[in-house]
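Figure 3 (text version): structure tokens given as input.
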């Protein structure tokens, strides 16, 4: 588990630079000269490097990286404009994928909470790579497979709500958005049935109404101010029953918005206490630090 900003980007860069045969990347935003240099160096030594970038919302911002990579032997395409491509994954040698909440944008790194989860499960890697191949070819078809631990958008709403509905003791939530009535209602229902619902976000007036409803139902909301030099919550984390044998986490690119859940290309990984206890513990500890460090709404 790579937890930003504390870990720094070296672990991500080392992962990218360690490719031997193939590197694939799906990225919403790419504006990181170091990452771009690593990708071109990979291609120069014979690695097959294929990059898929969003064109719908971040097309203009991604164009400089696209042009630089294409001029240095990297196969890079812009995703179809009919769908936002918000997924953030890097896969190396058909063996391991980083499923991330972070974009590769240098200016975001110093004060943004994000995580990258390494996944070497063969079924997960195969599903991510085969879905990448389809997306890279220009289709907007559903994901090819759920693998063993994956939650894809379009269509992730039932999976996210299922994690919330399955909580018996606690729900830890970090997200950049709280703009899905379905998710808000599920969190409210959880708080009303006695689950300890704790939400940590960066303040945004767009979500005041939803957060007020969660507090009114008995939940707890802590918000960081949206100010320079203050930790910005960009991570998308849902952790149910942390610290118990039934803990489940969903973490990745999925924001709590209708677009992210039902229309965008997104990817979360589902972690459980049984198969990823150390990762669950790391996510829980980082959340608690964030929650304790922000004032109550």
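Below: residues designed for each position.
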């Amino acid at each position: 588990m790579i937890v930003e900003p504390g870990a720094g980007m070296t672990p991500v860069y080392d992962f990218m630079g360690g490719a031997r045969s193939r590197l694939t990347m799906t990225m919403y935003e790419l504006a990181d000269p170091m990452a771009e240099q690593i990708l071109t160096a990979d291609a120069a030594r014979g690695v097959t490097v294929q990059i898929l970038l969003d064109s719908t919302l971040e097309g203009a911002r991604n164009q400089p990286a696209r042009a630089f990579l294409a001029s240095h032997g990297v196969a890079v395409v812009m995703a179809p404009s009919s769908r936002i491509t918000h997924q953030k994954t890097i896969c190396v040698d058909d063996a391991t994928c980083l499923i991330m909440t972070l974009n590769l944008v240098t200016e975001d790194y110093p004060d943004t909470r994000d995580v990258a989860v390494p996944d070497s499960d063969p079924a997960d890697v195969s599903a991510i790579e085969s879905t990448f191949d389809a997306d890279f070819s220009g289709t907007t078809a559903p994901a090819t497979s759920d693998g063993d631990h994956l939650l894809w958008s379009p269509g992730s709403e039932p999976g996210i709500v299922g994690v919330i509905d399955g909580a018996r003791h606690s729900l830890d939530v970090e997200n950049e958005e709280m703009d899905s009535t379905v998710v808000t209602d599920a969190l409210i229902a959880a708080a009303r049935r006695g689950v300890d619902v704790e939400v940590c976000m960066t303040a945004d007036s767009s979500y005041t109404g939803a957060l007020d409803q969660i507090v009114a139902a008995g939940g707890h909301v802590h918000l960081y101010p949206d100010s320079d030099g203050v930790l910005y919550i960009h991570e998308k984390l849902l952790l149910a029953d942390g610290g118990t044998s039934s803990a489940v986490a969903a973490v990745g690119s999925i924001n709590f918005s209708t677009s992210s859940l039902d229309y965008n290309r997104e990817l979360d990984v589902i972690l459980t206490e049984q198969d990823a206890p150390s990762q669950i513990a790391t996510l829980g500890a980082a959340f608690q630090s964030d929650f304790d460090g922000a004032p109550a709404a």
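The two ends are 29 Å apart (CA to CA).
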